Amino acid sequence: MKQTITVNYEGKPAYDILLEADFHKLSDTVAALTMANRRFMIITDSNVAEHYLEEVKRQLLPHAKCVEELIIPAGEASKNLDSVNLCYEKLIQCGFDRNDVLLALGGGVIGDLTGFVAATYLRGIRFIQVPTSLLAMVDSSIGGKTGVDYKAYKNMVGAFHQPKLVYMNLSTLLTLSEPEFYSGMGEIIKHGLIKDKAYYQWLKEHKDAICSRSYETLREMIYQSCLIKREVVERDLKEQGERALLNFGHTIGHSVEKLKDLSLLHGECVCIGMAAASYLSWKRGSISQEEYEDILFTIKQFHEPVRVSGLRAEDIYEVTKLDKKMDSDKIRFILLQTMGAAVIDPSVTKEEMLEAIHSILNEA
Fold first, then answer.
1. Which of these is catalytic: 161, 195, 229, 258?
2. pLDDT, tens digit, 9 for 90 and up, residues 88-137
3. Which of 282, 296, 276 is nearest to 338 (CA)?
4. Residue 250 known to be catalytic
5. 51 included as an active-site residue
6. Which of 39, 63, 79, 145 is catalytic?
7. Annotation says 362 is catalytic
8. Which residues neighbour 224 within 8 Å (Cβ) at sequence distance 6 or greater?
């Protein structure tokens, strides 16, 4: 099976996604990108550093002028402008110039943060994505969307900046906790629902192998999800149209994430949001009740929630109106047109939204 996917940008090859079993090819791959004798800054978090920082440094040292590191506290709470300032300060102190390289070693928080720093430091320097979580591998590391949160509003400050390489060491998935591993399944299930019904069916059929983290099954799953993500981002580089379909489940999911004060994982909130969007798709007649219930069952089969407690429907609705996906005061809601195909719909009413939100609340 192929282990390399090339992503094009404006019709030309921009970067490769490599699916590997370890870090052994990272050194030669970086050398081939004409990055020799440059300064490297590895940005990672306190959890990932313990497992992989020294190995990645060893891979870079033969070709680097120097390898610096910056470790930030793990968790979504670090994805903010304060962390960006720490990165800027470290880069300036170490004398990084426009020809040097950042490397994001970690999950989606580290990837988004590092990408945003790379996009804005000296008006843009090169960076490499080395995702270590399932969520980052199939979603945030691909497509060049970078950003940080602002006062718990998700990704409100950001930029588009393409990496020079995405290097996936799939063995890093074995060190993830169960909640972190299953958090990535929300985005994967989403890929099947919005783009490929056969892939969605494949996920259900391979549930046991996925949950046991069979290497070959995970590699096939990640490869197929990366193909779907590549197809979408190549056709819509800056989310002017089709790429918005990738936000299925995110409108309500982001509101839940904020109102729960980031106590739930991003993937968990996406699953809750997908449950609400699927409910509305059923109520509008796009999918059957059986298909709606199958979506809920499948999400729960991968140990993810479809309901949330302790929130009010009106509060969730009000936060959705502050989402960055708003367009002329209308929410660009993503609904299923059928199983395996989605559509952008700005016509969803407040009443429909509230009904969908009530469907995901554990109400007394």
1. 229
2. 999 999 999 999 999 999 999 999 999 999 999 999 999 999 999 999 99
3. 282
4. yes
5. no
6. 145
7. no
8. 191, 196, 199, 202
